[in-house]
Design a protein that fits this description.
The protein is mainly beta. It contains three helices and 30 strands. It has helices at residues 87-90, 342-346, 369-372, and strands spanning 5-8, 27-32, 40-45, 52-55, 59-60, 65-67, 74-77, 92-96, 100-105, 115-118, 122-129, 132-136, 139-143, 147-151, 156-161, 167-173, 213-222, 225-233, 238-243, 248-251, 270-274, 277-282, 285-286, 300-301, 307-313, 326-330, 335-336, 351-352, 355-361, 366-368. The longest helix is centred in the C-terminal third of the chain and has 5 residues, at 342-346. It is globular. It binds fe (ii) ion.
């Protein structure tokens, strides 16, 4: 995240002597991206972060692809994903390609006896239902309904949920999640025309140094495998850190919609970008105010992009019979558009309460076995009058 942040105690100069009260040196770690060329943070641990006690047997967590190639408008009933006690086991990949994996999860229990690190992807957790705290060495991030939590790869974390009713929509990105470049000035600051700014971005706080020796299980995901590691020191033993690389949060409710006299195209909803896909937010807003405007979207052909919509709340004006947690995948190659009757119905309407997350991947998505289990098979024919 291109905002400098610092928590806890750090030395005046980097790479200099920095001792604990007992005279021992703290262990400095550079956490850097794109080699040493992009965002980084300097972390000061009570103990070296390298003390591995044992390694368990790795196992595959690769999604099982059911439809590698397809050309079918697809709808999934996301809330049919069954709640599962364990956080990692609750995560079900439904759509995947080489740039991203999209998952649904309904975890019931907090993570108490292990930590998790995704070493292959940045994660964006969209909180549809539930609340709690993301705990990392960088500090804590409280979350609730409508939050996007961006967790850069390599961050060891635990989640504490407030209760058992949680629904998450998760994107794993094999490239870094960034704010849209066109909204940043030459110094990285979000410009005046950006739909959100640094004031809306929540950074970690309440750093709590846990200086403990023992057995700490960290499940590390890399290349579709999960590697069970046992470390000899607590992963949250940061006494301090500074830099630009850390988890952060943005509420969809803080995304300010861009509106106009005529229908605004989807890029006005863009919230994040990554290599080969974007994430957009559709939020409650005033409709177009030209006297003859048609608020419903026109039919469109995604010539070089699939389109995934995750329906969160409100009435989605261009669709009929949409329910919370529903996902539509409109693949590149065939047009899609408003359902019959919705264009006429939208004329004269002044505002919408719709809330949805959209992902446009520039390469085709594959559909997993988990997705087939929650598919509405007749959706492709839903445009018939
Ligand atoms: Fe669309």
């Amino acid at each position: 995240m291109p905002i400098y942040h610092s928590l806890g105690k750090i030395p005046l100069k980097r790479h200099t002597v920095f001792r604990k009260p007992d005279g021992e040196l703290y262990a400095e770690e550079l956490v850097s991206t794109e080699g040493f060329s992009s965002l980084y943070s300097l972390v000061y641990h009570c103990h070296p972060p390298t003390i591995v006690k044992s390694m368990g047997t790795p196992y595959s967590v690769e999604p099982k692809i059911a439809r590698e190639k397809h050309l079918k408008h697809t709808s999934l009933k996301g809330f049919k994903i069954q709640p599962v006690d364990d956080y990692l086991e609750s995560r079900k990949v439904i759509l995947a390609n080489n740039d991203l994996h999209i998952s649904l999860a309904a975890p019931k229990k907090s993570m108490t006896d292990y930590f998790y690190k995704n070493s292959q992807a940045d994660e964006v957790l969209f909180i549809h239902e539930g609340s709690g705290v993301l705990k990392t060495g960088f500090g804590k991030l409280s979350f609730g309904y409508g939050d996007y939590i961006v967790i850069p790869r390599g961050t060891i974390y635990q989640i504490e949920f407030d209760d058992e009713k949680n629904r998450l929509f998760i994107v794993e990105s094999f490239s870094s999640i960034q704010t849209p470049k066109r909204y940043r000035n030459a110094f990285g600051q979000l410009q005046e025309h950006s739909p959100y700014c640094e004031r809306d971005i929540r950074k970690p706080k309440d750093l709590e140094t846990i200086d403990q020796i023992g057995d700490f299980k960290v499940l590390i995901k890399k290349q579709g495998m999960m590697y069970p590691y046992t470390y000899g020191t607590h992963p949250f033993d940061f006494v301090g850190w500074d830099g630009f690389h850390y988890p952060w949060a943005l509420s969809i409710h803080d995304f300010e919609p861009i509106t106009g006299r005529l229908h605004q195209p989807p890029p006005v909803h863009q919230t994040f970008e990554a290599h080969n896909f974007v994430i957009c937010s559709f939020v409650p807003r005033k409709y177009d105010y030209h006297p003859l405007s048609i608020p419903a979207p026109y039919h469109h052909s995604n010539v070089d992009s699939d389109e995934v919509l995750y329906y969160v709340d409100g009435d989605f004006m261009s669709r009929k019979s949409v329910e919370k947690g529903q996902i539509t995948l409109h693949p590149a190659g065939i047009p899609h558009g408003p359902h019959p009757g919705t264009v006429e119905k939208s004329i004269g309407k002044e505002s919408t309460e719709e809330l949805a997350v959209m992902i446009d991947p520039f390469k085709p998505l594959m559909i997993t076995e988990e997705a087939l289990a929650i598919e509405d098979e007749d959706y492709f024919a839903s445009w018939q009058s």
